[in-house]
Amino acid sequence: MKILIVDDQRAARRVLSRILESLPDVELTEAKTLIEALAWVDAAPPDLILLDIRLSNDPEDTGGFDLLRHVATSHPEIVVVVVSGSSEIDMIRQAMRLGAKDYVLKDELSPELLVPIVEGLRERMALRGEVARLRERVDKSWGLKAIVGGSAAMVRVRQLVRRVADSDATILIRGETGTGKEMVARALHETSSRRDHPFVAVNCSALPPALMESLMFGHERGAFTGADSRKPGQFELAGAGTILLDEVAEMPLDLQAKLLRVLEDRRFRPLGAATEVPLAARVLASTHVDLESRLASGRLRDDLYYRLNVVSIAVPSLDERKEDIPELVQTFAAELPRKIHFTHDAMATLTQRKWPGNVRELRNVVERVSLLAEHTSVNRAALLALATVDTEPSEIDQLAERVLALPADSGSKLDVLERTLLARAMASCGGNQTAAARLLGLDRQVFVRRWRKLGEDTGDDDG
């Protein structure tokens, strides 16, 4: 800790030095005039200044006030404690108004009085340092620094995040599964003035339709059977922070209408409540589906679409920014307990391969190789032995190409593929929805909801 003693009296400086020099990790500097003090403050700003208001024998000299004004303007992080022989109330008040943190009379000066002040400052400095380190860690994990990539597309994403972070406008984040849409949402939150408030992510595709309204908006006691107590919803839990509606296009139409009203009125009513609750949170939405086809098929309200799409951020797929793959691989590898290095030919293989799972798939490959590689230096042969990273199109890629080649008048190609998969699964399982959902790797309720949306027969629950 650096301490500057500013006093025109040598004896006073000596007393202060004797009290402080016994403290550990303290660097003392002395100044006897205002000019000397200003030079020290600007050249090597101290952590603490012990300041006498009068810096000469002239009783009208109040040079200490000039130093206080300079510190308040140019170095507000410096703590100033006035150590003066004057007990005039007006002088004490003016010193405090100018930013002094404490006022000590020279007649009462003692180690018991001064040392706790210095140690208290030392603790506050340690806490500020810890907060700064934690903030840096959060920013690296969730802020703008977490959006890795030097490609033009990712530079545009970061620029847009920085530009709209402090806006209260609703933002729609679009991109394929695994591209990092939630990462962008968190960066918007961490870059904004709401960063000290909660960030709440709601997966609209995973919430049961019957409970979705209660889970999102909350309910009062007795609102329905089993509601034994009041429970706040996700909008209320977000407080003055940020709420992300992930896969917002999967929300049922009746709830879409209620969400639209919430976004327009900035108020919502929990189930069973007599009054509405103000919406303090900022709303973000994300989706991986083609919203325009959802609009055309009537599965997404057009007024909600326009209300959500105030600002749109398109997160590119990994295949659209392959130049970022080496940086991403190095970033993921650095985060793992076991450090590995990919040789040039292994990195070339990773760069050439298609990534249908995008950044999430790439991260999983790096983690798997880190765990299973025999050596810390991974070449192409070792990579191919540990992960499916061949550069030839996979069967799923070939299937996707065939679906994309369907004629344009066949309707939504996503719906065609989804309907075929659901129907095949139901046929393979003899109409048993639970078994069909398990075969597709879906939650049963999600399967039933998608089955019904496509206008198919609901089938028999137990086959």
Number of DSSP strand runs? 16
Strand content: 5-15%
Largest sheet: 5 strands, parallel
What integer value in Å does the Rg equal? Answer: 32 Å
Structural class: alpha/beta
- The CATH topology of the largest domain corresponds to Rossmann fold
Structural summary, described in words:
- The protein has 463 residues and is an alpha/beta fold.
- It has 20 helices and 16 strands.
- It folds into 4 domains: 2-131, Rossmann fold; 148-314, 3-Layer(aba) Sandwich (Rossmann fold), CATH 3.40.50; 318-386, Helicase, Ruva Protein, domain 3; 399-453, Arc Repressor Mutant, subunit A.
- Helices cover 48% and strands 13% of the residues.
- The strands form 5 sheets. The chain has a 5-stranded parallel β-sheet, with helices on both faces. A 5-stranded parallel β-sheet has the order 7-10-13-6-14.
- α1 links the parallel β1 and β2 (27-31).
- α6 (152-164) crosses α7.
- 29% of the residues are buried.
